[in-house]
Amino acid sequence: SQASRGEPQIAAGAELESEAEPWSLLRPLDGRDRSGFLSPLFKVLYDGQGGTPRLQPDSRALHYMKRLYKAYATKEGIPKSNRSPLYNTVRLFTSCAQHKQAPGDQATGSVPSVDLLFNLDRVTAVENLLKSVLLYTFSNSISFPSAVKCVCNLVIKEPESSSRTPHRALSSFTFNLQFELKKKYTWFEVDVTTLLQPLVASNKKSIHMSVNFTCTRDQGQDPSAQDRPFNVTLQVPPSLLLYLNDTSAQAYHGWCSLHYKRRPSRSADQNRGLSVCPQGEGSAEGVRSPRHRR
Amino acid sequence: GQETISLPLNKPRAPASLNLSEYFKQFLFPQHECELHDFRLSFSQLKWDNWIVAPPRYNPRYCKGDCPRAVGHRYGSPVHTMVQNIIHEKLDSSVPRPSCVPAKYSPLSVLTIEPDGSIAYKEYEDMIATKCTCR
């Protein structure tokens, strides 16, 4: 009857009102998180409730991400159409363990090797890695000689299995960096996509690596650079920046539906087997061939 | 309608049931028609600003207003909307009239601090209502 149906709702309502915190609206009424009841978005929001202690991010990292946000979204928070359409998630991790191994040598420009451990727990299985970058940020802008040549040696290690066994280097990569830094630079990126792709793709929850740079002035380009001392503050440990494509239904796939509407044929990415579109409406729309306007 | 026009003005107006133009007006121009309304909030109001860094303000908007009995292309409503009106009026009034609801959305970019201190920029689908419909 009408009356009986009405009561439980009122009771639930009363229970909701008594809990003043708005975020409690997101919690299931009986308090239990039946699997699948809370969609990932609400789980994120629910996890974010004020009660759980939260580690504060590095201020430089936060500054960088705020600039990235301004570049990618309008003041109202709407994604800009001129950003790269492939990824809809960017995660920045700061290393949770930094050990210096060998001291650097200012005269030769070698930077102490830094041991880094990144915890990737927050990367979910539906987030496909597209690009990964080591991000060096400088607390104050430094002036480099106009041309710098660096050799970067990166060793990826096995996660620590027991404190007694030494870290076994999984693979070691050395690559040359040559870049010109303008004055007032506050950060630069080192692309390590190919190195980390297999690790993140295999859902590794932590990445352990050591990085060191040896930088020398590029005599040919800037003879005047000899007389200025080469002060490098690269020993600031880098952050790890991951550009990901979240394929869940809650994530925004704007370019996907546009992409399909305009060109229903498969894109090169999909030929490569990259699943960049959720199997959802967007792709279904692509099946219908658009009728051309006569 | 010719008769009503030719009525002498000094006579009292015809009873409402005979005043067709008034009657039809309720179809064409609902008084509080279904439309989009702004609702600006800041995450500090929800006490979420310690982990949602951006956007500084969020306007999800919402739909509110009356749906005319004869909805047509004006709201982009499917034919079913008209059928539901007929069921409500002619067959079972417990079946509600069509409601004024969002028909289109736009995404929202969010910058959040994760519990482990990492920072995430994410784009979520359907977070801002941009168009209303009756259905």
What are the defining features of this structure?
heterodimer; A: 294 residues; alpha+beta; 5-stranded antiparallel beta sheet; 4-stranded antiparallel beta sheet; 7 helices; globular; disordered N terminus; B: 135 residues; 3-stranded antiparallel beta sheet; two-stranded antiparallel sheet; 3 helices; 29% strand; elongated
- Reading the helices and strands of chain A in chain order gives HHHEEEEEEEHEEHHH
What is the total tally of β strands of chain B?
A: 5
Number of helices of chain A: 7
**Major β-sheet strand ordering of chain B:** 2-4-5
What proportion of the residues of chain A form beta strands (DSSP E)? 25-35%
Main sheet specs of chain A? 5 strands, antiparallel
Shape of chain A: globular
Helix content of chain B: 10-25%
> SS-based structural class of chain B?
alpha+beta
In which order are the strands of the major sheet of chain A placed? 2-3-8-5-6
CA(first)-CA(last) distance of chain B: 33 Å
What does the radius of gyration of chain B come to?
A: 23 Å
Unreliable residue runs of chain A? 1-23, 28-38, 226-231, 258-276, 279-289
Rg calculated over all Cα atoms of chain A: 25 Å
Largest sheet descriptor of chain B: 3 strands, antiparallel
Distance between the termini of chain A: 58 Å
Give the ordered list of helices and strands of chain B: HHEEEHEE
List the helices and strands and how they pair.
The complex is a heterodimer of chains A (294) and B (135).
Chain A: H1 2-18, H2 40-47, H3 59-72, E1 89-94, E2 98-100, E3 114-119, E4 127-142, E5 147-157, E6 169-180, E7 185-191, H4 193-201, E8 206-217, E9 239-246, H5 254-262, H6 268-271, H7 281-287
Antiparallel strand pairs in A: 1-9, 2-3, 3-8, 4-7, 4-9, 5-6, 5-8
Helix pairs in contact in A: 5-7
Chain B: H1 2-6, H2 20-28, E1 35-37, E2 52-54, E3 62-64, H3 79-91, E4 100-113, E5 119-134
Antiparallel strand pairs in B: 1-3, 2-4, 4-5
